[in-house]
Specification:
single chain, 7-stranded mixed beta sheet, 629 residues, alpha+beta, 16 helices, elongated, 7-stranded antiparallel beta sheet
Length: 629
């Protein structure tokens, strides 16, 4: 097999945000797939608390594109940074600090987060126009936060494309429209110096002092900038607002205020606020008879607009952390297809969202390392597979730490360790050996027949540590399997894998998932499949009905409408309440499956036997819900 190096130099990283990149390669055998070889720092991953699975650790030597990628916005979209300023989406870099949100529904607060990954793709573009004139260009799958939850840019109320989507009149949640940041013209600089230095505040804050020192040489020996012009222009007033705020302003507990002893300065400040349409309140300060306090009205949206209009220098005074949002809502006026494909950008953040042009925007999760790109569901998106080429060595070092307690490690619950690339990279033998030598129990869930290569090794290590295997086989119909799972081993090949595992003396359970309503759920189809599983010696079988989570729901709906349009209304009814099939269907499926399993001797519950652990049903389910759909 010929592996070609992909150009990764000249400022063109193969995968944005990828650290430890050794090289990126392509091969004719894997048409359209790029493999990014990396040196990982860690491969032993702790499963998040509350995941609902009976294991605490995983090892994932491969990572691929997320099954739910939703490429979002055009590159010029302004993103709210953690210092209150904005930056174009295309100019973001991994590690940048921006604002995301925390909370429930439309009731949220701004919190700092980091850009964990940043990339671009070519997608059909739509223009979203808001009532205030804001226009965004986004992909149809992108989601915004509305007063009624997250909604995609496009969708339908009926049919395969049914999903929550924007319509004229939909209220978007955010922080208000972003205002342009001022240019640092000579007038702006004069206004800033007047606001900062008029009352001797030169050294009040280091950042403000540094800006003043930068501006002063523009005026030579003149101190004329200390005078308030009788008729100042907008540039001067923007700078003046920034200078006074840096000297005598503060923002906290949702209130932006400036207190000043000079009436002329206070009057000039309120005049500048009025010019830019800021509502404000002027109060006397009882303890200081000569002092006036000016408070900005209008909430966090107006505070943010003030920061953008004036551009103060002091970072801590610009912090919006913890600010409540939700009161600022803008209605959608129109959603229009542009009729062309454009380069669109997306990011991954720690909060799962970000603020784009003032609106809370959902981002693509897990893009920084990617979940494994399964070729079995026909997903039409960019194929990028990250290969941790040093995984066996790194894992061996991690397992030697005194803190390691030899807890069960499950592989294949997020990424398939026996995907086709394992035939070349051969990472799993080293990983299995490292686990066994440390006395760590292990299990593998896979659809990949490459596993057959390692059966002798697994048989040997099973003498020292518990070893469990599980193979996913959803159906026997090879034509339907090819349409639903192109690129994966055939059902017959996977049945043979189960036979080989059992002949090697290893327990091997089978996960029949997803069971497709009215396509693969008939008693005849299940009976034939279970008979084949019994024939090859499967030690137990667990069956699950199809789950349709966001992302999978849209893809499967389009496939169903094209292949079996007569079933669309029935599926719409069956999954009307969300991702999971109705309880009545689950109960009916169980009633059919139970007797069939008993008939074929496959009803033994997964668990421990003399040779080690099989993969429990609860462990296998999350993986298939992620990967098969």
């Amino acid at each position: 097999m010929r592996w070609d190096r992909q150009r990764t130099g000249e400022g063109e990283p193969a995968l944005p945000g990828l650290e430890g990149l050794v090289r990126s390669v392509r091969s004719p055998e894997f048409d359209g797939v790029t493999f990014h070889e990396v040196h990982a720092r860690s491969v032993l991953n702790k499963v998040p608390a509350g995941s609902g699975v009976p294991f605490g650790w995983t090892v994932n030597p491969y990572r691929g594109c997320s099954h739910a990628c939703t490429y979002c916005l055009e590159g010029g979209t302004r993103i709210l940074m953690a210092d209150g300023r904005t930056k174009a989406l295309s100019d973001l870099t991994v590690g940048d600090e921006i604002y995301g949100t925390r909370g429930h529904g439309a009731s949220r607060r701004l919190v700092p987060t980091r850009v964990e990954a940043h990339w671009t793709t070519l997608r059909a573009a739509y223009r979203v126009t808001l009532e205030d004139g804001t226009r965004l260009v986004a992909g149809g799958d992108h989601r915004f936060l509305t007063s009624k939850g997250w909604k995609h840019v496009t969708g339908s109320k009926f049919g395969a494309a049914q999903r929550p989507h924007l319509e004229p009149g939909t209220e978007l949640i955010g922080v208000g429209r972003f205002a342009p940041t001022p240019d640092e013209t000579l007038g702006y600089r004069a206004g800033y110096l007047c606001g900062m230095l008029r009352s001797g505040g030169f050294a009040a804050e280091p950042d403000a002092a540094a800006r003043a020192l930068e501006y002063l040489p523009d005026f030579g020996a003149s101190v004329g900038f200390l005078k308030v012009p009788p008729d100042p222009d907008a540039h001067w007033q923007r700078g003046f607002l920034a200078g006074v705020f840096d000297l005598a302003g503060d923002y906290g507990r949702g209130v932006l205020a400036v207190a000043h002893d000079e009436p002329e300065i206070a009057d000039a400040f309120t005049a500048a606020l009025a010019r830019f349409g800021f509502a404000h309140q002027l109060d006397e300060v009882p303890k200081f008879p000569t002092r006036q306090e000016i408070r900005l009205l209008g909430g966090v949206g107006e505070v943010l607009r003030f920061f953008h209009v004036s551009n103060p220098a002091v970072p801590w005074k610009r912090s919006l952390e913890g600010a409540a949002i939700g009161s600022s809502r803008r209605r959608v006026e129109a959603i229009e297809p542009l009729g062309l494909q454009l380069p669109l950008f997306d990011i991954t953040t720690g909060t799962g969202d970000f603020v784009a042009d003032g609106m809370v925007s959902h981002n693509c999760f897990a893009r920084n390392t990617h979940t494994y790109l399964d070729f079995d569901a026909g997903r039409d998106f960019d194929t990028q597979v990250v290969v941790k080429v040093n995984a066996p060595q790194v894992l061996a070092a991690q397992l030697k730490k005194p803190s390691w307690r030899r807890e069960h490690v499950a592989m294949g619950t997020n990424t398939d360790p026996y995907q086709r690339a394992e035939g070349r990279y051969r990472l799993m033998p080293g990983i299995i050996t490292a686990l066994a030598r440390s006395g760590t129990p292990l299990s593998v869930l896979t659809k990949g027949t490459v596993l057959a290569r390692d059966l002798p090794l697994l048989r040997d290590v099973a003498r020292d540590v518990p070893v469990g295997l599980a193979v996913s086989i959803a159906l026997l119909d090879e034509e339907l399997q090819h349409r639903l799972e192109p690129g994966t081993p055939s059902p017959r090949a996977r049945l043979e894998l189960v036979r080989k595992a059992r002949e090697a003396g290893l327990p091997c359970s089978v996960l029949v998932a997803p069971v497709l309503p009215w396509l693969t759920d008939s008693e005849e189809a299940l009976d034939e499949l279970f008979a084949q599983l019994a024939d090859v010696g499967a030690t137990s079988v667990t069956a699950f009905a199809l789950h349709l989570r966001p992302g999978a729901r849209e893809w499967f709906g389009r496939w169903l409408a094209g292949s079996h349009p007569e079933l669309v209304p029935r599926y719409r009814e069956l999954y009307a309440r969300g991702s999971y099939v109705r309880k009545a269907y689950r109960e009916g499926l169980a009633e059919r499956v139970g007797p069939l399993l008993r008939r074929h001797g496959l009803d033994r519950k997964p668990g421990l036997d003399a040779r080690g652990p099989e993969l429990p049903a609860a462990e296998a389910a999350p993986a298939e819900q992620l990967r098969l759909l």
